[in-house]
From TrEMBL:
Its EC number is 2.7.4.16. The keyword Cell membrane does not apply. It comes from Arsukibacterium ikkense. This is Thiamine-monophosphate kinase. Mg(2+) 2 binds at D45, D73. The lineage of its organism: Bacteria, Pseudomonadati, Pseudomonadota, Gammaproteobacteria, Chromatiales. Pfam families: AIRS, AIRS_C. One of its GO terms (molecular function) is magnesium ion binding.
């Protein structure tokens, strides 16, 4: 099967039909129609076999995760996902693998109201690069640069489940059958908080999604906003599955440095805290205040209640 037959067979109709796609897959480029009064938000993410996923991963789960991790970046900026482009590098054409991967990609794109509109295929070591494009009302994108001293720091959902799910996959951790399904679901099939991210346009001063662990990601906001922060580890939202499966020090490590949560991390001024419950409760996603922004530029302080919490972040680095 050649390149163009591969595209036509597996990716020509990935995702829902969108009226703003004038020309999609199959041409030299996509032609897309932007809404009046909206800005374009673009993000790119690459997943490499052996670095970001196991060689024997379920290809349907891989298609799901590739879409979700990109859409999660759009959600963090308050954008509505719209269009996807895929650069796919394959060592060979495995039609059964491609069929499952394309199905996972298409059903997840459909869930987030996206359409695959183009990309590229090449021969080489297995790697996947996706470019996701979304739209946000003009001037309303949430960035990492707006946090102010005194703002409260929030996260959605629970932290650390995906990291423990990875350990289970690697045979480095054990858990009960009761919790294993939850942890593996969080690792293989994360969710992007799209609707909640759009709601945050009305209250958040800054935001980002959590892909590299809280201690790895929060400093990006601190640098961009020229502020500091403190986090109370006792306020970290931990699932019952995580708490039942490991002791507290390990649970804190998973939540602080584990990564792949794809929850939203955001800051809110005190004047807007009162509206959070009303604004976010319709989405059914819990959110937790875990700390505050300080004036100590670039400094992230961890506390356990009123006491300092001694912890050394050890997150993943592509180029240590």
């Amino acid at each position: 099967m050649g390149e163009f037959e591969l595209i036509a067979s597996f990716f020509a109709d990935s995702g829902i039909a969108r009226q703003d796609v004038i020309v999609g897959v199959g041409d030299d480029g996509a032609v897309l129609q932007m809404r009046d009064g909206y800005d374009l938000v673009v993000t790119t993410d690459t997943m490499v076999c052996g670095t970001h996923f196991f060689p024997d991963v379920d290809p349907r789960a891989l298609g799901h995760k590739l879409v979700t991790v990109n859409v999660s970046d759009l959600a963090a900026m308050g954008a509505e996902p719209a269009w996807l482009s895929l650069a796919l590098t394959l060592p060979s054409v495995d039609e059964a693998w491609l069929r499952q991967f394309a199905a996972g990609l298409a059903e997840t794109a459909d869930y987030y109201n996206c359409r695959l509109v183009g990309g590229d295929t090449t021969r080489g070591p297995l790697s996947l690069t996706m470019i996701a494009k979304g739209q946000v009302p003009r001037g309303r994108a949430i960035t990492r640069a707006g946090a102010k001293v005194g703002d409260y720091i929030y996260v959605t959902g629970t932290l650390g489940d995906a990291a423990l799910g990875l350990k289970v996959c690697q045979g480095q951790a054990q858990t009960s059958k009761k919790h294993q399904a939850h942890l593996l679901q969080r690792f293989h099939f994360p969710s992007a908080r799209v609707a909640l991210g759009q709601a945050l346009r009305n209250v958040a001063s800054s935001a980002m999604d959590l892909s590299d662990g809280l201690c790895g990601d929060l400093p990006h906001i601190l640098r961009r906003s020229a502020v500091g922060a403190y986090i109370d580890v006792h306020k970290l939202p931990l699932s019952q599955a995580l708490k039942d499966s490991c002791d507290q020090p390990v649970a804190f490590k998973m939540a602080l440095s584990g990564g792949e949560d794809y929850e939203l991390l955001f800051t809110v001024p005190e004047s807007k805290r009162g509206s959070l419950d009303v604004l976010l409760s319709p989405y059914g996603v819990p959110f937790t205040c875990i700390g505050r922004i300080t004036g100590a530029t670039g400094k992230l302080e961890l506390k356990a209640g009123e006491q300092p919490f001694d912890y050394q972040h050890q997150g993943f680095l592509h180029f240590p």
